[in-house]
Amino acid sequence: MSLTLSMDFQFATSIEKLWSALTDSSKLAKWVANIHTGQPMENDFEPVVGHRFQFRTQPNEYWNGIIEGEVLLVEEPHRLSYTWASGEKHTVTWTLQDLGDGKVNLHLEQTGISNAPALNGAKYGWTKWCGELEKVLEQ
């Protein structure tokens, strides 16, 4: 059985600025960080369908510190989807919706999660990262 994580975040920003924070590798490095150390994850992300990328951080005894991905869909500035593989392989899809009045809804859907602990871990991670994303958007 495969589980799906579905979350929504609202930001006071423009859809273009949020899109840039999701697709620019230097901006991604500011909010996608090692959950345990807070160290930014180096990455070579590019919003190009078929592009293979990695997020890299310090390995530990349980993990090699690498997240592998491949861009599946780019519909600027409304949808972005890629694989996300660290142990098991998931699909992450971001959907951006301009709510007007300077607010944007960011919907996250992560599919292919194998069990409840992995689902809870993903929820914890994305919640923490989207808190950091908010700080990046305020800059």
Describe the protein's architecture and organization:
InterPro entries: ASHA1/2-like_C, START-like_dom_sf. This is SRPBCC domain-containing protein. Belongs to the AHA1 family. This protein has 139 residues and is of the alpha+beta class. Helix content is 28%, strand content 42%. It has a seven-stranded antiparallel sheet with strand order 1-7-6-5-4-3-2. A hairpin with a 3-residue loop joins strand 4 and strand 5. The N and C termini lie far apart (41 Å). The mean pLDDT is 95.
Strand content: 35-45%
Task: Extract low-pLDDT stretches.
Answer: none
What is the total tally of β strands?
7
Question: What percent of the residues sit in helical stretches (DSSP H or I)?
Answer: 25-40%
Major β-sheet strand ordering: 1-7-6-5-4-3-2
Shape call:
globular
What's the pLDDT, averaged over the residues?
95
Overall SS class? alpha+beta
Note the main sheet: 7 strands, antiparallel
Radius of gyration, in Å, reads 14 Å
Distance between the termini: 41 Å
SSE string: EHHEEEEEEH
The count of helical stretches stands at 3
Q: Main traits of this protein?
A:
7 strands, alpha+beta, 3 helices, 28% helix, 139 residues
Write the SSE topology.
Elements: E1 3-12, H1 15-23, H2 25-31, E2 42-43, E3 52-56, E4 66-75, E5 79-86, E6 88-100, E7 103-113, H3 116-138
Helix pairs in contact: 2-3
At a glance:
With about 140 residues, this protein is an alpha+beta fold.
